Structures are given as C-alpha cells and as structure tokens.
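W.,

You were right to be curious about this one. When I first looked at the sequence I had no strong expectations either way, so I just let the prediction run and decided to look at it fresh. Below is the sequence, 76 residues in total, followed by the output.
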Amino acid sequence: MKNTKISLAAILIICCSFGATAQTSDEIIAKHITAIGGLENWNKLKSLKMEGTIKAQGAEIKITIFQVDKKCLVLI
C-alpha cells in the first residue's frame, strides 16, 4: 500500500512537470526592470541607498551602502 502511494505520487509529479517551463535569465531581468518602474525611470536615479546585515561566525554586522553620481561609499 505504501509503495502504491509513493508510485502514484511520483507519477503525478512527473506528469505535472511536463507543463512546467523554466524562465531564462533574460525573462527574469525583464520582469524585474518592469517591476521597478522601467529602465527609463531607473536611469533617472541620481542616488541610491542600500542597507543590510551580514552574518558571519555568529556575529551580525550592519552595512549601509550609498551611491551618489556613480561614486560608492560603504559604511560598516
């Protein structure tokens, strides 16, 4: 009975995977650019600020990156 359920599940997964298609990197990039407002709006930006945390060996390090007119400053 257990083998029958496993076999049925495997057949179902195989059948469903035939309809699935992978996205190309170009499609993913195009969707992202559209989501952020388009390439024209992205090129209008003059400054950018990114914040994050780096976790290493049990310690958390906060990091902030500023970019103004193509010059980058990293604060840790």
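Here's what jumped out at me. The beta strands are 47-56, 59-68, 71-75. And, maybe more interesting for your project: Helices lie at 2-17, 25-35, 39-43.

Coffee later to discuss?

I.
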